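Quick one, tokens below:
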């Protein structure tokens, strides 16, 4: 797959096979995240790999019942939790680069997983306090997101996106 094909193939997958993820693939995916760009190269991100079913259950319980991603955390063989250390990034003119840095690393991770034939689903809607407690994350560290990782048990069509004309301008804001 070339890069655009990887991007096109990625989907938020919420249903997973009971099949383990190969260690080499996990390492490849984490390495892709490790190499992400960041504000002043401070690399605020940390990843917690949760394979233990009690740990995944606790993370699922940090989500509301209505979150469609909840079942994925239990069904997938493992979950990767994205944390960020606030002292390893900065806010500049109101822009929170910590969240941006962490998000970039996570997107590297999601795309690398896709390229390796694995499914993911970014999860943002959870109780940070409950997730922190479940994983012994220090109070100063933010728990930003998590994703199940595993082989997909479902086919999903791509979700729609805004058209190019709506999001790309030429020379000045609003110019087609
Ligand atoms: C910041 C962020 C938070 C998200 N939170 C959740 C979530 O809590 N639960 C869930 O099932 N999907 C969540 N998603 C997945 C989005 O719903 C999904 O990316 C979007 O609908 C587009 O679909 P696609 O990823 O299949 O292209 C989140 C995605 C992002 C980027």
């Amino acid at each position: 797959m070339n890069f655009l094909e990887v991007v096109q193939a990625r989907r938020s997958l919420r249903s997973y096979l009971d099949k383990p993820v190969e260690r080499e693939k996990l390492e490849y995916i984490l390495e892709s995240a490790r190499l992400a760009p960041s504000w002043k190269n401070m690399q605020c991100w940390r990843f917690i790999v949760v394979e233990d079913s009690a740990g995944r259950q606790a993370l699922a319980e940090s989500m509301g019942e209505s979150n469609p991603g909840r079942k994925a955390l239990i069904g997938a063989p493992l979950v990767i939790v994205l944390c960020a250390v606030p002292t390893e990034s900065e806010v500049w003119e109101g822009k929170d680069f910590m969240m941006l840095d962490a998000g970039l690393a996570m997107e590297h991770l999601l795309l690398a997983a896709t390229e390796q034939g694995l499914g993911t689903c970014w999860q943002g809607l959870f109780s940070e306090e409950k997730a922190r407690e479940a994983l012994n994350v220090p109070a100063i560290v933010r728990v930003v997101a998590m994703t199940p990782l595993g082989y997909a048990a479902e086919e999903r069509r791509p979700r729609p996106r805004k058209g190019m004309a709506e999001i790309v301008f030429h020379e000045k804001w609003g110019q087609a």
